[in-house]
Design brief:
This protein is of the alpha+beta class. The chain is built from 13 helices and 18 strands. A hairpin with a 2-residue loop joins strand 16 (325-332) and strand 17.
Length: 423
């Protein structure tokens, strides 16, 4: 995780090498290895009441209501989340069961010189500067909701957002909510025949909608001389139909403190109207030997507390990181040898996240325990589910994690439904 600037190439190679596998795994149940603690795959609610979330999910299956209803979820994380494999394994089966309200938030990661999930693209004409919430060299512009910002060097905007598919069908959308730096001159969608029929503005959000679903939309326009420079943060792609929106916010190398440092981050997340916020961070913190338990506790609070304030309707789920390994070297017969040993600080991070959740009445999913606990990194690597760095997973490994998260969410939902029937 500390090798954050090399991970884009690594994850790109994973995507290329495992492309034949992707068609099999996308949205399907994957085979879960025996060494996972499946009996531990449950959410510790710590007294949190999720009944309103589950009631809204249940209402999505009520076909008698003709009005479209959306249950929005936001998953925030680091490189484990940025690649998109983990969250796709949660999003697709949720949408298959409760309805597809759209792809959700997409972020122009490639334009910010980092890896992007395989199922969308954001491309631009001209040259664009960028900023990321991770890394000191990328601080020229303030990042937004997705942890990045892209800024045109000229006064011309030409930006195309598309959903991608390996089949003839695409994930069509009828609505776009574009996150950007506040401005009164953001360009309109002019791509014919996709005429805009509705538009609403907020300080950092412009909404567009039209009648027929499309797979691509083009933004174009000009910034007048002397006007405020424009920064684009991302866009939520939506069908306008009832179902689940599962938004993904992931950044390679991100800490809790990375998101806490983004001005107005919680306010922008609130614009997505989330009913569930999942936060999967902690791996990078485990590589920071100077970070104390108290400091980490405060950094968690610096992210969670503003989200609770800005998103009072949302329940929050904290997840713990799986065991990873540290790269080490030693000299053997005058030759330097590389080896890996378990990262002992993961335990401290796991305990701190769990303690914060318990202290604040928040739900916690202990992925550390579910993934196999102590010694899990060696087992995952041996099974071909963890990469050479013993920190990141292969695509299949991430899909297994997503499958287990989906299962535990569905178990909690079914328990709610069963209890309601009994009552």
């Amino acid at each position: 995780m500390k090798m954050r600037y090399g991970m884009g190439l690594y994850l790109f190679l994973i995507a290329c090498l495992t492309a034949p596998l992707r068609a099999q795994l996308a949205g399907d149940t994957v085979s879960v290895p025996a060494f996972l603690n499946k009996e531990k795959n449950c959410i510790d609610f710590n007294g949190a009441d999720w009944s309103s979330l589950f009631a809204e999910m249940d209402s999505l299956q009520n076909e008698s209501d003709s009005l479209p209803r959306v249950v929005s979820m936001v998953h925030i994380g680091d490189s484990h989340v940025q690649a998109g494999f983990l969250t796709e394994a949660v999003r697709l089966p949720l949408q298959q069961r409760f309805g597809d309200a759209g792809r959700g938030l997409v972020v122009p990661l490639k334009l910010a010189k980092t890896n992007e999930p395989h199922d969308y693209s954001v491309v631009a004409d001209g040259t664009w500067n960028f900023s990321r919430c991770v890394g000191r060299k990328y601080t020229a512009y303030t990042p937004g909701i997705g942890g990045i910002a892209i800024v045109p060097r000229s006064n011309r905007i030409d930006l195309t957002v598309s959903t991608l598919s390996k089949t003839d069908d695409c994930a069509g959308f009828r609505k776009v909510r574009l996150f950007h730096e506040p401005t009164d001159s953001f360009p309109a969608v002019i791509s014919e025949p996709y005429r805009v029929i509705g538009e609403a503005r907020s300080p950092f959000l412009t909404c567009y909608s039209w009648n027929d679903p499309v797979c691509s939309i083009h933004f174009t326009g000009a910034i007048a001389p002397g006007e405020e420079r424009l920064a684009v943060y991302g866009a939520s792609l939506e069908t306008g139909e009832s179902g689940i929106l599962y938004h993904t916010i992931g950044n390679n190398g991100a800490f809790y403190s990375s998101y806490a440092a983004i001005p107005g981050f919680a306010e922008q997340v609130a614009a997505l109207s989330p009913r569930l916020v999942v936060i999967s961070l902690g791996t990078n913190e485990s590589f920071s030997t100077a970070l104390t338990r108290d400091e980490l506790y405060k950094q968690i609070d610096a992210v969670v507390a503003p989200l609770q304030k800005c998103c009072p309707q949302a329940v929050i789920l904290l997840t713990t990181p799986a065991e990873c390994a540290r790269r080490r070297t030693r000299w053997v017969k005058k030759r330097r040898r590389v080896y890996y040993s378990p990262n002992s600080r993961v335990g401290l991070v796991r305990e701190t996240i769990a303690a914060y959740a318990a202290d604040h009445g928040l739900a916690c999913w202990d992925w550390y325990e579910v993934s196999g606990g102590k010694g899990a990194s060696a087992a995952w690597r041996k099974a071909g589910l963890m990469a050479y760095d013993r920190t990141h997973c292969t695509e299949t490994g991430y899909r297994i994690q997503g499958e287990m998260l989906y299962r535990t969410l569905m178990k909690a939902y079914r328990d709610y439904v069963d209890n309601r029937v009994v009552q």
